[in-house]
Amino acid sequence: MSWKEAATYLLEGGILVYPTDTVWGVGCRADWPETVVKCLRLKGESRHMTCSVIVPQDRISQYVAVPQGLDLSPFFPGPYTLIFPLIDARLTPIAGPGPSLGCRVPALAVLNQMVQNVGVPILTTSVNDSGNPPAQTAAQARDWAQQKGIACVASEFSGSKASSVLRWHEGDWQVIRGCLPEKGQ
Q: How many CB atoms lie within 10 A of CB 92?
């Protein structure tokens, strides 16, 4: 499936496997709870963790409460998931404690353009059955998509590791997984 076809497919409620700047992802429209449940069930996940969404960088503050003046440029675009308090009630079904939501802006222009074209946040999680390592190659991602009976973007991308996950808490970053960007980055 091409990126252009993928945008239409997502708009119509499809669940899609796609490359990111980290590992392969699977996702759907984050504002359609029924589709979100189907997507998470593919992995065998229960709703006890904060989900992440891919959003255009200039729209993050429409969905989560980013403190005024907080500079996100060291993180975006890049391999980071930033967790903030949720402000868009449509996304409550995928919110974590607080409620809160993780936001991503991957360093993969074609993916960000697709999300821009879709116009709504895209739920994103790694391609794998819960508890197993994520797909890092195109072949692994295609095999998983085929086993689950869902569509996959045509790409030969091979990822390396999952995104770093950081939570903004009481005026500072709390590292959930991974690390903060190096100074001067």
A: 11
Mean pLDDT by runs of 10 across the 185 residues of the chain is: 93 95 93 91 70 91 95 93 94 88 93 93 91 89 96 83 89 89 62
CATH code for the domain of 69: 3.90.870.10
pTM for this prediction: 0.89
User: Where in the sequence is the domain holding 72, given as residue range(s)?
Assistant: 3-177
Cβ atoms of 91 and 101 closer than 8 Å: yes
Residue 72 identity: L
Domain assignment present for residue 185? The answer is no
| Residues contacting residue 103 through CB under 8 Å, at least 6 positions apart | 52, 53, 54, 55, 60, 63, 64, 81, 82, 83, 84
Give, in degrees to the nearest 5, the angle at Cα 30 between 82 and 181.
15
Query: What six digits make up the tokens of 59?
Result: 């729209």
Please tell me the total count of domains within the chain.
Answer: 1
